[in-house]
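Quick one from the shared queue. A colleague (R.T.) flagged RNA helicase as missing a structural entry in our internal table.

Convert sequence to structure tokens.
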Amino acid sequence: MIEVIILKIENPDCFWVYITGGRKIVVNEMEYETLQTEMNQFYNKHYQCVDAKPCVLEEGQVCAVYCEELKSWCRAVVNSIISYTDYYIAECFLVDYAKTIPVNTEKICVVIKPFVRLPYRATKFRLYCVKPVTLRVNYYNDNSEIVPANKWDIAAIQYFQNLLNATQVEAKICAVEEDNFAVYLYVTIKGEKVCVNDALVAKNYACYELEETNQKRDSEGGKSRSEEKNPVRLLWPMLLRESKELKLNITTTCLPVVLSNKIEPCSSLETAPLFPALKKVLLRKQFQGPNHVQSYSWPAIARGYDSLIISSESDPLSYLLPIITFLQSRNCYISLSPRQGVTLVICPGQRRAELVFEHLKMYSHCSRPLHPMLLFLGMKKEEIKSVRIPRGCEIVVTTPPIFLRLLEHHSLLFLRLCHLVFDEVDVLFSDAKEQILTILQYYKSNLSVEEKEFVPQQIVAVGNHWDKNIEVLTKEFMNDPYIIITSMGEAAIYGKVQQVVQLCLECDRISTLLQTLDFTPTDAQKTLIFTSCVEERDMVYKAVESISIFCLKMNPGIGFHADYIVEQWNKTISPGTHVVLVLTDDCTVAAKFTDATRVIHFSFPPTPRIFGARLHGLSANFQNSVEKSKAKSILLLTEKNACHVVGVLNYLERAEAFIPPDLYNFTRGVLEAKEEKRSGQPFCSSIKAYGICKNKNRCPDRHRINLQIDAPSKVAEEALQTGGIITILPLFIVDATNYLGRVVGKWGNLYAALETEMKDYYQESSNCTPVDKVEKLAMYGLREENSFHRVQVLDVEQKEEPGAFYNVDIKYIDEGRTGYVQNQHLLSLPEQFQALPPQAVEFIVCRVKPIDNEAEWHPKVSRCINDKIRGKPHEAKVALVLGNTIWVDPVVFTKLQDLKTSINEYNIRSEILSTGLGVDNPEHIQELEKLFNEAEIPHEKKEKHVTPDTKDFHPTIKWFDKQDAVVVKVKLQNISNYNCRIFEQRIAFSASANGKFYLADMELQRSILREESTCVLKGDEPTILLVKVKKEPWCSLLKEKNHHVSFDFDYLDDNEERSPFSSSPKKVYQIPIGVCEEEEEEEEESSKDSDSESDLSSC
């Protein structure tokens, strides 16, 4: 029980309380008072500052507002924004007081992180297990009955309010939902405790829901599972949540899993098949498990079976702990020589191998020490030949290329190998397929060794995704493997589900849906159609029912017709019969249907987990065999789902499904838009260092050169004036090829003079005065031993108390490195010392990269280069300059032999290659120059460029206006290929059709949302959907008149013909102003000149 104070009541399904005691989620009232005092002090002083104002104000945004009634600054959430003549009013909900107040948007401030350290004081509750009722009168039968209703009666709300006037109110949490708690509420009236839920039902103001009533009976006499949940996260402000995921109500005991062999999962650590000493270690570390994946993987691996685990998780403990347990049985390996390792763990990269090795060191000392070894080798043959695996080492962790290099010189080293583990097996096959197959062949060839006849042989593979390479692994190299797939999206690929994607416009989803339905199926067919909300479900239900297909719909909860729906669905149906069930994602658990033959995603699944839950409805028809499965998943992809198109394409490729050509074009457009959206981000560090980025789709940085942002800095530009030969001074070594430092020599004299002046200035103690107030991005002086530096403040730590010391994040602008100092160490920097531009430059050594396609340099080679070059001047030749980065090749250290001659003592690139940890990268500069050449001509100008000999035709274009978008139809047929580029106020369409090339470059009269706009082929005719920035009617499509472009009057006729109510008054369609007077003339000209030659300038 928890004690609460009622703050606000709307109805029994929506009321706000303040939790005062009884559970661990309670926050001391003094903490809220302290928070309120801090907010008032801060915002009373800073609320007029520009930095305190939000850049953009949106509905649902957390902010700080001033409440006139409370005379205090409060935390709030913006509910809505209302526009007036010259200002805006925001309706804000005070999350600590459950009040809604209007606030002028000019008086709204951003809420800073220290003020969201406490959860919201006002908590939203609803009564558990009850719903409103009403009296239904049947005049035909002359009777009445009480039936469930959609909203609460005024009398019921009044009675509920009167009950809550009691002095003591307590609540019992029964369920944690997305934004509220479902509770049993108790009040004490005249010394007697009354359940408010029961009181409403007793007075016939409410009734119990069937499902929740059963849950109530099951929970009597014991603690419910939901009470174990920690609801702190629900109370916390939205801006502290890591991600907003649409929650699917699947209990932990019912999470779906696909198994090739039956496995009894272990439900607790006590029943887990782990070594007792290992369990004690886990308990000491407060291990919370086993989780869903571990409960199935541990029993299979611990019994020595070949196992494949496909899951969205990447926790090494899912396979390490049972393998450690198995290795404790020394008698299993008594026939083997004790000199070599028994287990080999193959990881996709050095960083992942280090993570796995850390877990091994943590858990491998529980009983018999296993002495795990992390194997890392370069290209040096002498180093490889000298490798020795220590006696007693049972587990070796490494990567594919390192293992093969070792195997080349030590072919007998792993004859004792019994357990072969592939960590992130899907990544391994993607990056090193040939190497993995070589390792598997080696393992397979050694199975016949005589001394291994009676020892366990096991292959374990763990990954995130299923693909055809993994299928080869299970069929050719594993012996009756235990396949465990907890991700239903991957299980559908494993089960050979046919994946189909239908591209359509958002407004055409219903017609596309009806086209996908099979009216005359040969076999019995059951179809699940998933929608996003109840309104959408009802719309789809009516559409499907209208074409004479037997259709059912299901309510989000267990409704009055649920038993009927289950009964109808489970009936045995004859061939040629088609049953359709329309439902929302909330119904997936209640339905528990697994025998569907088709799943249609009418609404796009918002998360992979929900996508998998939908596909679980096909699980009874999964079929991992040569035969084609009859299960099919159909996804309707519209312009509103553009952000997911890359993931959809990758999924279809792994499923080996048919991919529509338009999807490739759509994906290219989306990637292009994403890349242009990154135009303000820093240039990708991977492209800088190696010329390529292996993870371009997920990398947040920019992958194109922007000539405005990347214009050479003043210091770098001066370096170019040397003729390409400069002297560099590396002062901070980021890694083996990336350094921060200065250009010295003739151009470094200015900084040397500045350094001397600063030292003389600060020698006088009167000038060494700490600054009173540290400002962000300001420049200050800093003393380190006997030298003085110019620094810039990057960030300032929040001060707990006035006058206290605090840390400041700074950057040494003449060296490039960053660090932390306390505020009292910063000195005032006179103006004359700030005039010289920052001297720090980034240097990158070209044409060398880490071995084995690693993304980062090994610390060993970085330390070697750091010890060799730091603080020493080097001669370098400039290869390329962008922004504040200079690519250099070669870089040599010159030693003066005498006054006239000097020798090159070493070359940095050669030094890196000599370590055996780097390889040649000849494409490095070529890739950078290619990007540079592409950036020389602005993108839009390149499109407008046409050779003088080329002549193009302008297509006929029709358009019509909608409330939130403009639809443009290009009247072309028999198109062989086309391209459409959409900008904020311009579209450029080109296509080849009937042996002619058509081009339309049009400047729009208003701005559009380019990310949401799209171009698709609809009935072999290109249709462009332009989403408006402002939902207002367009008078015309283009800024300038174009006789090839005209308004589509057929759109009005089509809409009138589609109306099912011919007798009702006609709907009046608004024709854009100015269209009527001009379109007749334009249509005549368009019909004559639709195929006439046109110049680009006329567009």
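The first helix runs from residue 29 to 46.
Confidence is low (pLDDT under 50) at residues 211-254, 936-950, 1056-1099.
Added to the table.
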